[in-house]
User: Fold these one by one.
Assistant:
Number 1:
Amino acid sequence: MTGRFSQRQLAGEVAMLLVGCVLYALSVVLFIDPIHVIPGSVTGIAVVVKALFGTPIGVLNLIINVPLLLVAVFYLGKKLLVYTGITILLTSLLMDWWAVLPPFTEDMLLASVFGGVVMGIGLGLILKAGGTTGGTTVVGRLVVRKLPNLPIGTILMIGDFIIISAGTLLLRDWDLFLYSTIDLYVCVVAIDKVMYGFDVKSAMAIHTSQAAAVAGRLQAEIPCRVVRFQDGLVCYCKKSNVSKVQRAVQVEDPEAVCGSVNMDYSFGGVDRPE
């Protein structure tokens, strides 16, 4: 039974990863690259470099991400290495392969909004499956292990905003900065909605002496929010993820005690029940 469950879970994660890669690549090819909007992360750097020198986005994406991936594996584990390796390779190949496709729209506002939506959904699926696209998403995973109270979308927004600002200065186009900021905001909202859902209806009180380690594992493996207290933590998640939270807690601290309380909760608010 456990073996069949693990195989189903693996198949689901791989399928989610592949769909996410396709959506991510399409967002760049059909919306982002044609109008030179800077999406942030390594892809944003690649878009800027292509605009300046004509270097293929996929090639740059692959080259820049390899060192980051090697660093991340020491902190985030082999599973993330495999999933991220697949993601980087597949998205890089697809972006260069589909580069001949015509843009979906040449309207900068529409391209910024819908590019952000498609990219955010793709990134959310990749992150939810347990992978990253490299770049700031790797950094986001690392930061979340240390600061589990922060939603990963917020971390990505900070890093990507820095990249967008630098890219705008190089391209000397302030309209591009505004459109890129719109794209980034829409993308981050879409990521958080895919990762965490619109409503979270379960809160789990976890009493553990290994609060930091448990919080890090939960935030890295399960779409949830974690708030730490002196004698433990509270984990906000979907009802369907309660059993996953319990298993992850027991792996990290077999002596931990979990208790679940049902409530209506939206991630649009603060990190506490209303």
Number 2:
Amino acid sequence: MRINHVGYAVQDIEAAAASFLSLGHYICGTETEDRKQGVKILFISDPSGAKIELIAPLDENSPVSGWLRKNGNSLYHVCYESNDLAADIAELRKKGFITVDSPSPAPAMEGRRVVFLYGKHTGLIELAETDKNDCQGDG
């Protein structure tokens, strides 16, 4: 599976973006709210095309709030591209992964469906429907 991005949980999305911009990253899209997940999201990328999804809680009820209390600003998940969500979910379940939710449209990914799974040795991962027009390099 190809990595699409890494999700990075942050308390303050603007401050985190400024810090990553000072490291040579650029903003890739606009800040988006995902009310279902209780988060706001901003994608950034480096010149090679490696993407980071900055994820900040909308309120204290967000699952990211608990993560931040426990771990501070840190890696939250790795997102892999999927050409067939149903087949990839079935294959990962055979390998011991547990689905955290059902596939649903992600506002920050132009409505492409995503699903989160948990693996004992990997932690939280996300599968996202593949998009060939994804923000890549040349910021």
Number 3:
Amino acid sequence: MQENKPILIVGLGNPGAQYRRTRHNVGFMAVEHLAGDGAKWRGELFAKTYSANIDGRRVIFALPQTFMNDSGRAVRAIMDFYKVPIENLFVIHDDMDLKLGDMRTKVGGSSAGHNGIKSIDANVGREYTRIRIGIDHPRNLGLPIDAADWVLGRFTDAQMEIIRKTLNEINLVG
């Protein structure tokens, strides 16, 4: 990480009330949680952003408003404008290959079919930190639901409780 440069924390999701609490929007939920209740979001650079000073570092929280498949366009615009190096980029997203609430962090790697990650990789490269939050896969649960329908489905109250506990475990800065 470059110490003298801003940190960019991006949550992946889809904009709009119809996508709130959906599995695909767990990245949005995580970034909103990290930014805190008092965050003053503004629209810029194809995203909703909030900037804070945490322990003397500028931290930019971002929720791309381009829809999942085009997230990279917003990430590239924000990185260019704020001069964020790729090693200071953190992207939080859903992962069907992880059990509900499990969390894994890695730098680089493949998109594993995640369209938001594919878009970011195409726009900025792969050497950024990814925080993957498990949402389960319907086949692992014995459910006859298409994966696309699964990610756009809403969490139950019990599932949201598990996700809230996971979000409380995220600590990137400060």
Number 4:
Amino acid sequence: MKLLKLDQITGNEILARPIMTEDYQELLSEGSRIKKEYIPKLQELGITEIFIKDEIVDAESLVILKEEVNKTCRQKVQDIISKHTYRNSKDMIEISNTADHIITNILEEEKVVEQIYDIKERSADIYEHSISTCTLATLVSLKLHMPIDVVHDIGVGCLLHDLGLRYVTVEFDNISLDSMSERDLAEFKKHPIYGYSAVKNEEWLSKCSKEIILCHHERMDGSGYPLHATEISMQTKIASVCDFFDEHISGIGCERLKVYEVVEYLKTFKNVYFDEKVVDVLLEFTAVYPSGSKVLTNEGETAIVIRQNKHFPERPVLQMIADKDGNTIETIVVKDLLEYNNIFIEKVMN
């Protein structure tokens, strides 16, 4: 599976994920073949990117949260948050049940804390981003052996952490903060305060969850916002690392990056901006090169990542598709990077 810009589509590709409208109505189902005449119509509807199946290889992809659960939870979060106003928060308590649903489904998976997961860059809205951040933070919290009630509070805080983005008046989708005007940047950085102000008097919401909403952009060296705090709870540190990772692979308030680029950033700035233990745990289960990624090796060969090696997120199994001269490899050639110690992935190809 790969994510392509609509202007890269030539026709006859097969959808790997359904195409949805902004209000989550399905336009084309998974498995549909894209006809040329569909392309201008999709452009008119504002569709800019779609997931298509890579017909060269069938990669095995392992996800933390089942797709049907993800879809149900995302719709629930959208229904609740999109109706929220400062004067009407009575339905917000349902978020607590959604967090429990996510935690339960993660715990039901056999050996959930031992797997390596394919977490892929994508275009996402704040609702899908909130579900993904909650899912990542839940798994990190479980691997850190935190009490289940604390895991719940972290999950609720993550589902609501970007509530304040509903109230900012600037564009933030796939836009770098560095490219924003001073005025727009100041407005965007208010979103944690907007979110916290909206829920600070909610008695059902824990102090931990409220702190995550207010402080998920704080950094250990005080360079974050809105408080420039340096004393941050472990719960908030978990949320902030998971939020940073997911927002950068989905383009929420930043330009979208490849997974391996975000992984390198987290490694570089752990113990500076981010808690080292949290970063290490997140990266333990995150595939650096998700299944389906097209990569170039140090030997000049082109390959597709077809599955992950447990405990070795940087050494996946590859199917070679082109030699160093660019010639297509007609036979099936699979190389497990745990066995081929002299082969390394040099870069991910677009």
